[in-house]
Amino acid sequence: MSTATAIEKAGVVGAGGSGFPTHVKAAGRADTMIANGAECEPLLRSDEAMMKAAPERVLRGLALMRDSLGASRAVIALKRENVEAGDALTATLDRFPGVELELLDDVYPAGDEYLLVYELTGRVIPEGGIPLDIGVVVNNVTTLANVASAVEGRPVTRRLISVQGAVKSPATFEVPIGVSIGELVAAAGGATVENPAVIVGGPMMGRLADQLSEPVTKTVGGIIVLPSEHPLITSRVSTEAHVLRVARAACCQCMACTELCPRALLGHELAPHRTVRAIQYSTLEIDHPHITSAYLCCECGMCELFACPLGIQPRRILADLKAELSRRGIKNPHTRTQLGPDDVREYRQIPSKRLVQRLGLSDYDGQAPVEDWTSEVRQVVLLMSQHVGKPACPAVEVGQRVLEGDVVGEIQPGCMGARVHASIAGKVTSVTPAEIIIESESRQGR
Ligand code: SF4
Ligand code: SF4
Fold first, then answer.
1. Tell me, what's the pLDDT at 420?
2. Which residues line ligand 1 (CB under 6 A)?
3. Nearest CA to 439 among 420, 423, 417?
4. Domain span at residue 291?
5. Residues 349 and 243 reside in one and the same domain
6. Segments of the chain scoring below 50 in pLDDT
7. What share of the chain is helix, strand, coil (3-state, %, to 5)?
């Protein structure tokens, strides 16, 4: 069986948040394969934990992907400050001839694919493009550990998730996919504030959880608990109308958002200050370049959470515009290929520590050691869409008994997607096109 087929059968998707089906990448051709261990979002620790706990699996996954792609170069990149993870990888590296290790400065967003590819290869991904356009494939380190397991016949049923912020005992747990966010918060000793809110993912790019019963998926590397009145929470709950009103009233066109935009600094034609100005003029057509350039935004949040001195939210404005453009069927017209970074780029990198201070997270920026998951898992909720592409089709019926690793969701014929597997043994109690619920029969702690 080819590596790509084994990956497809095991349901491996981009674990860093993208959810892109990994077998599609593995079936391509590239000259360079990059393992992304940069984990640049403040407070997230699960990739670091994976590199420390299983360096051999990560590097084997990297070598397998390199060979599948026919690549001549394989490199793993992590932040210089992750000394223990770097040591663990270095001690394992001699078992993987030809694999390089690169240490990155601790800046945000070092783990953005476009920046990572530029730092490691000197090539700039075209506007609206992907790494493969310039002969590169990038996978997150947890994804690569899953690739190594897939080739040994083990599907994705669990993952490491760090629980940080206003909790009693911040920690990283290996949990079955489909446990709830509330169970994770409880496992970390519970919230230490009266009105907690939870960000799923990092503080820069993560989203607010709707409710604590929400299940975790293959792409969730961390959750962050904060008081509801924290600016990172209040900015996420403000309405679109409020965001636009503030931008129209307050933007002074200082350009700080554009000067610190990582994509603009790579040479992409993105200028958030122009987009903010554009929305001040209702006469502008939606296909004006200052509006369609929203397609080039990766929603890293640098413009609104660090750069803007006036609390304006360019990232939010661009994200809403992107959604509107897509609804109206307007495609990305920005596709320049011959790009070069700005001369001042290296002087405009933002150290993670400064970012943490600006975000008001200094009190929470500690370690999240790996702890055993001792909570009893009564049920898991497995979403059929945990990935890019079409949702999986339920492949089980109510009442059916399953073992951990059994296929419960299949890829739709002829479509891009990913399989879903049972993450615990038990009985299927609910099946809908959106999710499958499995209840544990043993009620044993896991
Ligand atoms: S979120 Fe802001 S800083 Fe980040 S890419 Fe988009 S416009 Fe640039
Ligand atoms: S940083 Fe803020 S005030 Fe300055 S141009 Fe950008 S949105 Fe306007």
1. 98
2. 261-263, 270, 272, 297-303, 314-315, 318
3. 423
4. 237-358
5. yes
6. 444-446
7. 35, 20, 45
